Amino acid sequence: MRWTRAAGRGLLAAAVALAGYAGLGAPSVGQAAHGGGRGPITLVTAGDLTDYLDPVLEDWNRAHPDEPVTLVELPDSADETRAQMVTSLRSGSGRFDVLNIDVAWTSEFAAAGWIAPVEPGRFPLESFLPPVVDTATFGGRLYAVPYVTNAGLLYYRSDVLEAEGEEPPRTWAELERLAKEVAPEHGLEGYAGQFLPYEGLTANATEAVHSAGGSLLGDEGATVTADSAATEEGLRFLVDGVREGWIPQEALGWKEEESRLAFQEGRLLFLRNWPYVYAQANGEDSKVAGRFGAVPLPGPDGPGVSVLGGSNLAVNVRSEHPDTANDLIAYLTGEPVQRRVLTEGSLPPVRADLYSDPELVRAFPYLPTLRRSVLTAEPRPKSPRYDQVSLVVQAVVHDAMAGRQTPGRAVARLARELESVARED
Ligand code: GLC
Description:
With 425 residues, the chain is α/β, with parallel strands linked by helices.
């Protein structure tokens, strides 16, 4: 069946009704079948790269001995995490009660009827940064609660730029010049991001395209907008980097962690990565501790545009203990844990007031930059077929960066393949 908005709503309504969520506040299957909906639960998440979750959940478990939460950590690649969650959800399993899902997947999980609509009044949405609440909604309805937000930053070696009397770059041309000329003089590679074909590459490519004023899809995935000179300009930035050698070839195989290690081993002048890197690269095992800074991503004529990253907490429609699941979400999104998300997890919280908390700004001087980056970040396209959209973007952009296709041809192929996803039966 062709995906249309109306059909989508129909499917959604059917899935929602089947799952026992015909109306807001209606009980879930779990609640109806097991009464009360309280008891032990499981929280599933992508890899906890900063190891902060265990103590947070231990505190919950001490306070809730009859409703303990078990943490299941999946691999640290966004795509593998999604694949494992989807396999479990498709089989109708209630094993994962609370799902910490990438903001990019909310639409797909909601449209498939795997996650339960959230009662908007139950969580203090008004205290969250506005763009993050939008990532948790699909078809005008809230399906998850924002938990962690994210925006790409440009990390730079402040020691090297200071020695050269240079400022951190604000434009692509400045970044290219420094990456081409200054980096080799200091025995460094120029620039890297996350360029392995997976969601990280989709994020990096979308940032380049948006920064150049282009876009990929509109209208919750229904229209394809990729075929433009701006999209080509965005791809050309990445393709030229590899061709001209200021993006190292090996970066075509890097995810977040590989690129972070290259930077903190002192091999890169510039790195595009998420804020968690800030604390890690200042850690004891980092060769660049105290010798780097972070600025907004550059673009063609001035600051560029980050994609909005992060994750939302959702309840599996098959959960047998949805009341406990919702309480855990309230705990994780409440002020005390949100503070720990930043101070112990080095991740950007979703609660707006923390960004201007003087004590936190002193401890995390990049907070104002991060706040600006999150507020100006653009979401990835919302699409019930986002998984396929992302696979197309990854494949095309990786081919172009590897020199197998010119940016012009890559844009034509991108538009053609995205059209076929949008039209798919
Ligand atoms: C980060 C972001 C997430 C993004 C992923 C890509 O985890 O928070 O939104 O999809 O990186 O690798």
